[in-house]
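Lab notebook, page 48
Experiment: co-folding of the full assembly
Goal: obtain a model of how the components sit together before planning crosslinking
Operator: M.T.
Materials (sequences as entered):
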Amino acid sequence: MSDRVTEAPERLYLYDTTLRDGQQTQGVQFSTSEKAQIAKALDELGVDYIEGGWPGANPTDSAFFNAAPATRARLTAFGMTKRSGRSAENDDVLAAVMNAGTQTVCLVGKAHDYHVTHALGIPLEENVENIRASMAHIVAQGREALFDAEHFFDGYKDNPAYAVEVCRAALDAGARWVVLCDTNGGALPSEVGRIVGEVIAAGLPGDRLGIHTHNDTENAVACSLAAVDAGARQIQGTLNGLGERCGNANLTALIPTLLLKEPYASRFETGISREALAGLTRVSRMLDDILNRVPTKQAAYVGASAFAHKAGLHASAILKDPSTYEHVDPASVGNTRIIPMSNQAGQSNLRKRLTEAGLVVEPGDPALGRILERIKAREAEGYSYDTAQASFELLAREELGQLPQFFEVKRYKVTVERRKNKYNKMVSLSEAVVVVKVDGEKKLSVSESLDESGNDRGPVNALAKALAKDLGRYSEVLDDMHLVDFKVRITQGGTEAVTRVIIDSEDGQGRRWSTVGVSANIVDASFEALLEAIQWKLVRDCGTKETAA
Amino acid sequence: MSDRVTEAPERLYLYDTTLRDGQQTQGVQFSTSEKAQIAKALDELGVDYIEGGWPGANPTDSAFFNAAPATRARLTAFGMTKRSGRSAENDDVLAAVMNAGTQTVCLVGKAHDYHVTHALGIPLEENVENIRASMAHIVAQGREALFDAEHFFDGYKDNPAYAVEVCRAALDAGARWVVLCDTNGGALPSEVGRIVGEVIAAGLPGDRLGIHTHNDTENAVACSLAAVDAGARQIQGTLNGLGERCGNANLTALIPTLLLKEPYASRFETGISREALAGLTRVSRMLDDILNRVPTKQAAYVGASAFAHKAGLHASAILKDPSTYEHVDPASVGNTRIIPMSNQAGQSNLRKRLTEAGLVVEPGDPALGRILERIKAREAEGYSYDTAQASFELLAREELGQLPQFFEVKRYKVTVERRKNKYNKMVSLSEAVVVVKVDGEKKLSVSESLDESGNDRGPVNALAKALAKDLGRYSEVLDDMHLVDFKVRITQGGTEAVTRVIIDSEDGQGRRWSTVGVSANIVDASFEALLEAIQWKLVRDCGTKETAA
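Observation: model returned without errors.
Model output:
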């Protein structure tokens, strides 16, 4: 083993299927633009293959490939091997996959004899021929071919010779990779390691074998590592372990292990740089944002709790030497250590975040303790300042006496109405009235929710327009500001369910900022977040010496 | 391997630390009565040991042991080995642990030389002597002794002889078990397997070795299995994988693997019966209920998605033979199969789901194609029917001509207002007017958003109340129905961002159903979901022969 380290590292390939198998997660349905956004993040991360979907299977996947983003990674179209009774050239399902025009094509086919005879109902040899012809067809078109050997491990356990024959046929026909799939997630790590070792001993080349596992026994990561230990050189998985049933092998957990931990770190190289690895936590959270999911706190490496030290013994040892209770440096994956707020580390973290907001506070300033207390109290009410940095800044400014009252909201009223229009069609319309006091003057503004095309955009839209409509001398400053995203989550505030709204705003100077509002009333929560978005913009453009209201 | 099966199975012991290490989870703080409730559930499940906490370390743990429930399982008090400079008899921290009066006592001590010299600052031999004396003290009091060897794997990698010496001292002093702990969660399964094998070869008896792992690389379950493969015979873990940082080894995933899957099922016996295993999903959900957490859908074996088949190819095969895509029977762990709708679903999937809704449609019925088309079109607009089974049923009924129009909504209007009250405090209030036609009669209803305590619950609350307030002869049927959850997300509908609302409702007969609404206007999306919730309830309680409106 020790002489391994001095050898040149072997290349290990990472194949991401978040956009295909990840979409099989219950409740997950990506839009075309979300697929493009995730593909871009995967490409920046440095995976080798991005499986984009199944062209022809649904409109979203087809639309994604029609306007596929340019990536350094090999964009891969997924499909199934040609059906019996027609040639590869004349199979319309396969043609739709080929027509996506990707550099790489991955087709799934059966490796378990029982499925061939019982699900497909064709002779075993015909299945082998379908696979061979499909792979040859891809290669003949000048593309890179992959074969996903479905149910490989169950198939191998029942009929090892046939499972191996199927794989060999795909390789002989020119497939770059044969991917051994544990489709129902039932194989255990020791089995996977043993079987991969056996098929390599039987002549399948390890550097053309991939592994595709599922988490049905919570062993998908371990099964992937066992396959690599046995000689496989490609891993298929998804970000945050998305995927059918219990999910696929979690690349967000596998990537740091492969890059940071032995024997993998010395033995292999991947397409992922240390710099990209340091962005992994951000990529993981971005995906949760897109899916409007609460990030899993206990996720390996990237979870908010992954480096949180609650036990008193651990926390004090960590201060002396982090390696005592941390197996890797949290910064290496872009994560941060959390030590209970009450101690010194809590305050230095706070000062760091204040500095990022341009607020310099000396160590030991009693305002630090007050800010921490207010954040704790607000979080108990359902607020979250993880992403709402602008709201965090406003809270701190208020505590530090550095937040002017530009204007005062006296009251507002929003109406949502749905009724038949003159063409007897049900239509809805919202209208908002906002009353503010600016420079001692009371101003009433009213706006409705229709966009340029006459479509109703709802009460929050009407409210946003009415609020910004007339703020006296501040109105001009707000002209280049607009709302870019709006996220709603039901959460716990004390003992009641409350609504948390996070609003992302943008201005003509390229700034982008997030604010948060919480209330049992969703319109009111939105109003609070809108109000803070405007306040933050006014602090930036009008300074903090103002006291207009 | 094959002759193994005919041998008598070996006993494998399960040690639960949900109440001690599980309490180190960020955000988790059990009350004394919750601890008792969990202990009872663990005892019914059949684990061998229940670690209840650290007597003396905090008031909750002390109170739990003072009124400890009677259990068949061995209730275990946790603590640390005696400190230097005093005898075991005179260490007050250890005395508090012993005074809990449990049959079994588990003490943690250091197995890594670096921690002995740097954290404790004592000679290596003195640490060994502290461990020996502590174990001997427990045994002398007629109790069963366990030693948790902290940082064992890191210690073994740095100084194998010392790590083994520490363990041998504990065993020689009478400890029933030495538990090899991977305290910082950094060891990988192959390392754990190799090291456990080496220490057994060095003379430590496998049937007196336990394994304690953490999930920092998402390998805690696999590391536990690797230790058992190598000869260890006790596993420590927690329910739902609670625990410090990324959590401990998840017993909820390990137990079904050990009982249902080979080689474990034939090779070992545990204290857990098949009947208790069939209650595992319920135990897992109960713990989430206590912690007020949303259960993890993708959890192995017990998650709501664990047997959900979304891919069309999978779903149709499952209908022929469940074993094709299920590695175990969902009923064996008390879970259920779900075949959700999605844009990848086939007709057989659809028929299965229609049958679940009580709608029998013959294969080949052209309505199947129409229903699928409508679902696809609605999903493109932003709807999702994965969880909204009631909305799915209504859509299908409409297409099949089996949905009566109980009433007709003519119009509605909702007002949200925020202003100062007479005490000069900002308050908000929503009011909803709904106009419906029932049995040819027009009915106007108005409701406001205040709950019994006078708190504003927002516009959707007002709308829900107004809608249900007067529906003529149907009102009575709706009396026992109420809204239990409300989920909002912003999603893509065509090219525009729209709001998707999912509402969960419940009635007095224990039914629970989910409906979905989509609109750019959040109030309108909520209204649609509310309306469908009422329609579904009326279908159930009034039948489908009605045509009232």
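Interpretation: Chain B has 20 helices and 16 strands.
Next step: discuss with group before ordering constructs.
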